[in-house]
Design goal:
The protein folds into four domains: about 25-155, M75 peptidase, HXXE motif (A middle domain of Talin 1, Up-down Bundle), CATH 1.20.1420.20; about 155-270, no CATH class; about 290-435, Cytochrome c-like domain (Cytochrome Bc1 Complex, Chain D, domain 2, Orthogonal Bundle), CATH 1.10.760; about 445-600, Cytochrome Bc1 Complex, Chain D, domain 2 (Orthogonal Bundle), CATH 1.10.760.10. The chain contains 20 helices and four strands. It has helices at about 1-25, 25-55, 60-85, 85-95, 115-120, 130-155, 160-175, 190-205, 210-235, 245-265, 305-315, 375-385, 400-405, 405-415, 425-435, 445-450, 460-465, 550-560, 560-565, 585-595; strands spanning about 100, 105-110, 495, 530. The strands form two sheets. Strands 1-2 form a two-stranded antiparallel sheet. Strands 3-4 form a two-stranded antiparallel ribbon. The chain is globular, with a radius of gyration of 26 Å.
Length: about 600
């Protein structure tokens, strides 16, 4: 009887909320969302002040850690707005505990925020860290105060609220449950709840349509989020959490409901260039990502006609000096646009210093080459064509050939219909467009995670859960692109220092200094781009120098903690150097999962 009464009250309260929301004007709803956000920010500021007092007077680990958890939970409630509206400050509230490098200015900014504090107090608080802890708390308070002032000064429209809610959901999926947000304390699963509750709150407040369809969607959203939180509560151990099930049966469902609610309520998409296509419901659709978010400017926009021209140019050896080598000579389509060699051979017959990376999914990066020396595919193609060791050619030598060839010229005119002459940048853009087309998103994993197939073994599922959890792979190879382009904005492609050995015996680090060759900063010694793991089963050998022949060797290297874990000195290693303690069965499962990332056409 008592239980039935509680249910009746809960349903009545929810229906009352919907009725209230249905009677609000758009302006009143937007004001309500902003006012509640400001109240929550004020609560967080107050809790940070309390944290400071406890840190000043206490040495007890549990008390300090519990206060930290309370602060993090409050932050997770406002994270949707902080990350969306004030991303520059958010980096120093909850970014990774690594230096923020401003390479063009040859300087770095020391990290601040929750992850820095986490390292100071977990697993056990050392009172010798007290000065550092108090300093970080003070910086945190100042940053939250700055965020509050910014939020107070802006208008928050309904389309921005929905966009921010979707971004927050993607953040939970890509950075939350993978441990990126809480690498030491591993509180990630416990922190899902406040993030989802905030999504529910702002979406219900914003979607004012009170039709039967909208009410049903709101009820479904509330129920699914409640079930999601319950699932996390029952399965909160980080290393054993079933992320595959959680994403497929919960997060993707929530994403679909929000998408449907947005359409039902006629809320327009935010007018901006975003890496994530706003016209799809989840992160896992075939067209979830927008390649035009990674182009230099509008005239470089992707088109199928540019792809056709680029396809022709890609296989044309006329572009090289001796007219014997095309792009496809080293990027072989059947090998997922790699060459299967440790390193390729130069025009002079010598071994090149670096392994040939795959071009599949290369369009979703903000930096190209192992050393990240070019920022877009147009500049990458020019770099390779002009390189004396690789092609030693030029785009200019192709222009008269295209003019003479009627078929070529017709292709060019279709690709660039407004042009009165052929220019080098257009040929670069055509090849880049062809590379941007090499994204199928139809692997065994893709079909499974978006519900189109149940063909996914228990071993493969275990491998994914390890990849996104205990093995920490997804904290660098971000789901679902599985490369180093950081979600959910995808505005930055990261480099990592993992201590890749010179040879697979692991006696010393590779002498290749990577990105340091361009920017002489100590943090960048031996730093290399984080490549995609998609199609990895057929793109070996692996690492920038092709040192490992098999995926099993790669997994073993990471399991031992990278170069530092192997015992040689890598002072700036960004990869955690503690052993992962993966069993042989778990190592095999990781490899089995990575093999599910192979696109259909390569089977």
């Amino acid at each position: 009887m008592k239980i039935d009464l509680i249910k009746t009250i809960t349903v009545s309260a929810f229906l009352g909320l919907l009725t209230f929301l249905g009677s609000c004007t758009k302006e009143e709803t937007e004001t309500s969302v902003k006012q509640e956000l400001l109240i929550d920010l004020e609560k967080l500021e107050s809790k940070i002040t309390q944290f400071k007092k406890i840190a000043e007077s206490e040495n007890d680990s549990k008390k300090i850690q519990n206060c930290f958890r309370e602060n993090r939970a409050l932050y997770k409630k406002v994270e949707w707005a902080v990350e969306y509206f004030v991303p520059e400050t958010a980096r120093f509230i909850n970014g990774p505990a690594l230096d923020e490098l401003e390479v063009e200015e040859n300087k770095f900014l020391a990290p601040n925020g929750f992850q820095v504090i986490e390292e100071l107090i977990f697993p056990v608080y050392d009172r010798n860290n007290k000065t550092d802890l108090l300093r970080e708390i003070a910086i945190m308070h100042a940053n939250i105060s700055q965020v509050t002032q910014h939020i107070d000064a802006i208008n928050i429209g309904e389309n921005h609220v929905i966009d921010a809610a979707r971004f927050q959901l993607y953040r939970v999926l890509t950075l939350g449950i993978t441990g990126f947000d809480s690498p030491v304390a591993q509180e990630s699963i416990n922190e899902v709840a406040p993030g989802l509750i905030s999504i529910e709150d702002i979406v219900l407040k914003t979607c004012q349509d009170n039709s039967k369809a909208s009410i049903n969607l709101k009820s479904k959203l509330k129920k699914t989020i409640s079930n999601s939180i319950s699932y996390c509560t029952k399965n909160k151990v980080f290393n054993t959490f079933d992320r595959a099930t959680f994403i497929k049966n919960y997060l993707n469902v929530i994403a679909q409901i929000i998408y449907d609610l947005q359409k039902q309520n006629n809320i327009l998409n935010v007018n901006k260039s975003s890496a994530i296509n706003p016209k799809v419901a989840t992160l896992f659709e075939k067209n979830s990502f927008n390649v035009n978010a990674f182009i230099p400017s509008n005239e470089y926009a992707y088109s199928e006609d540019k792809v056709a021209l680029g396809n022709q140019l890609f296989f044309d050896a006329s572009i090289s000096k001796d007219q014997k080598r095309s792009c496809a000579s080293c990027h072989i389509p059947e090998k997922a646009f790699t060459d299967g060699k440790k390193t390729n051979i130069s025009l002079d017959g010598f071994d090149l210093p670096r392994n040939t990376p795959t071009l599949t999914y290369a369009g979703f990066q903000n930096a190209l080459f192992w050393d990240l020396r070019q920022i877009d595919l147009e500049k990458q193609s020019m770099d390779v064509v002009q390189n004396e060791q690789e092609m030693h050619g030029s785009f200019s030598q192709m222009i008269p050939l295209i003019y003479k060839d009627k078929k070529y010229k017709a292709q060019f005119e279709k690709a660039f219909p407004k042009s009165t002459k052929i220019e080098e940048w257009q040929l670069q853009n055509a090849i880049a467009s062809y590379i941007r087309s090499l994204n199928d998103f139809d692997s065994k994993f893709d079909l499974y995670i978006r519900g189109e197939s149940n063909d996914f073994s228990e071993e493969e599922k275990l491998g994914f859960n390890l990849f996104a959890g205990k093995a920490k792979c997804a904290t660098c190879h971000f789901i679902p692109l599985f490369n180093g382009t950081v979600p959910p904005r995808y505005a930055k492609t990261e480099q990592e220092v993992i201590g890749t050995p010179k040879d697979k015996n692991g006696k010393e680090i590779s002498p290749d200094l990577g990105k340091y060759n361009q920017y002489k900063m100590e943090q960048l010694k031996n730093a290399f781009k984080t490549p995609t793991v998609r199609n990895v089963a057929i793109t070996g050998p692996y690492m920038h120098n092709g040192v490992f022949k098999t995926l099993e060797e790669v997994v073993s290297f990471y399991n031992k903690g990278g170069g530092k874990g192997l015992g040689y000195e890598v002072k700036n290693q960004t990869l955690p150097f503690d052993k992962l303690n993966l069993t042989l069965k778990e190592e095999q499962a990781l490899v089995a999962f990575m093999k599910t990332l192979t696109d259909k056409k390569y089977h």
